[in-house]
Amino acid sequence: MTIHQSPEAFGYEKFLHAHQSKEVLRFIACGSVDDGKSTLIGRLLHDTKQIFDDQVTALQRDSRKHGTQGQEVDLALLVDGLQAEREQGITIDVAYRFFSTETRSFIVADTPGHEQYTRNMATGASTADVAVILVDARQGLTRQTRRHALLVSLLGIKRVALAVNKMDLTGWSQDTFDRIVSGFQEFAAPLGFAEIRAIPLSAKNGDNVVLPGTAAAWYQGGPLLSYLEEVPVKSEERAAAFRLPVQWVNRPNSDFRGFSGLIASGSVAPGDRVVIAPSGKTSTIARIFTADGDLKRASEGQSVTIVLADEVDASRGSIIATADAPLTVTDTLDVRLFWALETELTPGASLWAKIGTVTTNAVVKSIRSRIDPETGRAAPADKLGVNDIGEVTLNLDREVAVDPYADNRDTGSLILIDRETTDTAALGLVKSSIAVSPKGEEAARKGTPRPAGGFLARLRWVFGGI
C-alpha cells in the first residue's frame, strides 16, 4: 500500500521559505570568443549539484554528438541550447540559468563573445549586479575583452570578477596571471569599477570555480563561487529614490481608485508625501494594497496598488515619486546610445523612443561623438554603425521624466525602435546633462516638482526582436 504524505511532512514549506528569503545575485559571464564562458557556467551548475540524473544522461549523449572535449563530458552544452550554437561551438543568444547555494540564489546570463552579437551581450548586462569577465590565459586580453569591460561599466556594473581561465594549459604560470591582471587593471582604471577580483581557474577541470584548486600554490584567494556568495548585491554608492511607474489604474468600482505597478526603486509607506507625474500634483499615500492585504511599507521589486489621499490626474505612463526627489522633465535628451541595427544612424533619423511605459516620437538632433571600444575615449563622429557606442542628442515630441542613468537604471534608460520593422534599434542611457524644457524650468522656479513620464522597468528584452 502506498502511503501519501502531505507536503508539510517532507518539510517543503520550510524549504521554500528558506529559498524565498535568500538574496538573489544576478551576474553576467562575458568575454571573448572561446574563453570558456559556457563551460564555466556548466561547471557551476554541475559542482553545486543543480543537475538531475536525466540531464546528466542527456549531457553525456549530447557530448558524444556535439561536444568539443573528446570523450569527456562537455559542460558547455548545459547552456548552449540552440542547434546553431552546438554545431558551431559558440554562444549566440543570451542564456539565463538559475542555481542556488546555502548562502544565496543566483541568476547567471551566459552571453556571446562574438563582436556581431555584442547587442545580445548588452541585454544580459543590463540587469546584472556583477560581471564575471573571462580571459583565456593563453590569449590574454583581446579587443572583445576590452569591449565587454567597457560595456559593463557603461551599464552601471561596479564589481567585476576577472576569471583568468584555462590556467591548466599554461602550467598555472603566475607570471602569465600577473601580466593579464596588470593589463586589465591598467585598462579598467578610468572605468570606475568599485572592485576587481582576479581569480586563476580552470573551468574544464573545476579548479577554483566552486572548490579551491591545489595546482596554484601561489594563489591565496578563494574560488569564484565564494566571491559570488560574498559580494554585495546592491550598490553601495547610492540609494535610489522611490519610483513607481503606473502600469494600470485599478478602478473596480466608484469607491476604489488605485495605481498599480512594480516599484522600480526605493520604498514607501502610508503617510509619505509623493508627487505624480506628468501632472506635477502632490498627494499622500493612503494605502498600499496587495492581493494578500495592506502593507505597512513597500519596497523595490514589489508589485502593489497605491491608493492616494487625493484625486489626482494619473494614468498608465505616469510615475509616482517621492516628493523630495522628483524626476526631471524634458523633451530633449542627451543619451549614450548602443546602436544595434545594420543600417547606420545619422542626424535627422526618426524613430520611436520607449521610455518605460511611454512611447513617443524621437528625432536624432545630433551625433556628438563615437566611443572607441578599446580605449573608452570619445572622438567626434557624424554617424553610428552596428554595435557602435556614441553620444547622441534626441528631440522628443512630448515631455518625459527621467533620472540620469548613473542615479537610477530604470528611470534613466530607454530603447529606440525602428518605425518600419519595429526592431529594437538601440539602447539609450540618459546622461547627467539633461536639457530641461521651458515647462520644467518654470516648474522649478515655482518650487513645483517637475513632472515625470515613464520608466524602463527591466532592460532584459532591450534588444528583443533582433
From TrEMBL:
<dbReference type="InterPro" id="IPR054696">
    <property type="entry name" value="GTP-eEF1A_C"/>
</dbReference>
<feature type="domain" description="Tr-type G">
    <location>
        <begin position="22"/>
        <end position="236"/>
    </location>
</feature>
<comment type="subunit">
    <text>Heterodimer composed of CysD, the smaller subunit, and CysN.</text>
</comment>
<dbReference type="InterPro" id="IPR027417">
    <property type="entry name" value="P-loop_NTPase"/>
</dbReference>
<dbReference type="GO" id="GO:0004020">
    <property type="term" value="F:adenylylsulfate kinase activity"/>
</dbReference>
<comment type="similarity">
    <text>Belongs to the TRAFAC class translation factor GTPase superfamily. Classic translation factor GTPase family. CysN/NodQ subfamily.</text>
</comment>
<keyword id="KW-0067">ATP-binding</keyword>
<dbReference type="GO" id="GO:0003924">
    <property type="term" value="F:GTPase activity"/>
</dbReference>
<comment type="pathway">
    <text>Sulfur metabolism; hydrogen sulfide biosynthesis; sulfite from sulfate: step 1/3.</text>
</comment>
<dbReference type="InterPro" id="IPR041757">
    <property type="entry name" value="CysN_GTP-bd"/>
</dbReference>
<protein>
    <recommendedName>
        <fullName>Sulfate adenylyltransferase subunit 1</fullName>
        <ecNumber>2.7.7.4</ecNumber>
    </recommendedName>
</protein>
<dbReference type="GO" id="GO:0000103">
    <property type="term" value="P:sulfate assimilation"/>
</dbReference>
<dbReference type="InterPro" id="IPR044139">
    <property type="entry name" value="CysN_NoDQ_III"/>
</dbReference>
<dbReference type="Pfam" id="PF00009">
    <property type="entry name" value="GTP_EFTU"/>
</dbReference>
<dbReference type="InterPro" id="IPR009001">
    <property type="entry name" value="Transl_elong_EF1A/Init_IF2_C"/>
</dbReference>
<feature type="binding site">
    <location>
        <begin position="165"/>
        <end position="168"/>
    </location>
    <ligand>
        <name>GTP</name>
    </ligand>
</feature>
<dbReference type="InterPro" id="IPR031157">
    <property type="entry name" value="G_TR_CS"/>
</dbReference>
<keyword id="KW-0547">Nucleotide-binding</keyword>
<feature type="binding site">
    <location>
        <begin position="110"/>
        <end position="114"/>
    </location>
    <ligand>
        <name>GTP</name>
    </ligand>
</feature>
<dbReference type="GO" id="GO:0004781">
    <property type="term" value="F:sulfate adenylyltransferase (ATP) activity"/>
</dbReference>
<dbReference type="InterPro" id="IPR044138">
    <property type="entry name" value="CysN_II"/>
</dbReference>
<dbReference type="InterPro" id="IPR011779">
    <property type="entry name" value="SO4_adenylTrfase_lsu"/>
</dbReference>
<dbReference type="GO" id="GO:0005524">
    <property type="term" value="F:ATP binding"/>
</dbReference>
<dbReference type="InterPro" id="IPR050100">
    <property type="entry name" value="TRAFAC_GTPase_members"/>
</dbReference>
<keyword id="KW-0342">GTP-binding</keyword>
<dbReference type="GO" id="GO:0005525">
    <property type="term" value="F:GTP binding"/>
</dbReference>
<comment type="function">
    <text>With CysD forms the ATP sulfurylase (ATPS) that catalyzes the adenylation of sulfate producing adenosine 5'-phosphosulfate (APS) and diphosphate, the first enzymatic step in sulfur assimilation pathway. APS synthesis involves the formation of a high-energy phosphoric-sulfuric acid anhydride bond driven by GTP hydrolysis by CysN coupled to ATP hydrolysis by CysD.</text>
</comment>
<keyword id="KW-0548">Nucleotidyltransferase</keyword>
<comment type="subunit">
    <text>Sulfate-activating enzymes, NodP and NodQ, may be physically associated.</text>
</comment>
<feature type="binding site">
    <location>
        <begin position="31"/>
        <end position="38"/>
    </location>
    <ligand>
        <name>GTP</name>
    </ligand>
</feature>
<dbReference type="GO" id="GO:0070814">
    <property type="term" value="P:hydrogen sulfide biosynthetic process"/>
</dbReference>
<dbReference type="InterPro" id="IPR009000">
    <property type="entry name" value="Transl_B-barrel_sf"/>
</dbReference>
<comment type="function">
    <text>Proposed to provide activated sulfate for transfer to Nod factor. ATP sulfurylase may be the GTPase, regulating ATP sulfurylase activity.</text>
</comment>
<keyword id="KW-0808">Transferase</keyword>
<dbReference type="InterPro" id="IPR000795">
    <property type="entry name" value="T_Tr_GTP-bd_dom"/>
</dbReference>
<dbReference type="Pfam" id="PF22594">
    <property type="entry name" value="GTP-eEF1A_C"/>
</dbReference>
